[in-house]
Amino acid sequence: MEASAVAVFKLPAELTIVQLEQCKADILELIEDNDAITLDDSEVVRIDTLGIQFLLATVTQLSSLNKQLIWQSQSSAVQASVKQLGLNEPILNQYLNV
Question: Residue 1 to residues 8, 16, 29, 61, 68: CA-CA distances in angstroms?
């Protein structure tokens, strides 16, 4: 399949352990097939520690493959969870206002 310009990945309202298996499969397919990913977290209202780890792994994977990430919207739930966990990862922080 030929890579497209930008694909949009919309995160679910609840990004928790329950949704992660499907989210991981979906994002890996998009990463493989596209040069750039727009990550839309506008609907996220609940995220757990594994959800934050998933986001960090996604950002790291895109960076390691030299693919572009555009972080669209910024869910207050995501920002609050990152602050609550005391996560200070420059690769993730560049996309979040924490």
Answer: 17, 30, 11, 20, 18
What is the C-alpha separation between 72 and 78, in angstroms, rounded?
12
Alpha-carbon distance 24 to 26, whole Å? 5
1-37 burial, b at 16+ Cβ within 10 Å, e below that, comes to: eeeeeebebebbebbeeebbeebeeebeebbeebebb
pLDDT per residue rounded down to tens, the chain (98 residues): 454 568 999 999 999 999 999 999 999 999 999 999 999 999 999 999 999 999 999 999 999 999 999 998 778 999 889 888 888 778 787 877 65
Tokens in use for 24?
């991981």
Record the pTM.
Answer: 0.86
Tokens (6 digits) for 21 = 């298996």
What backbone torsions phi and psi does residue 81 show, to the nearest 5 degrees? -65, -40
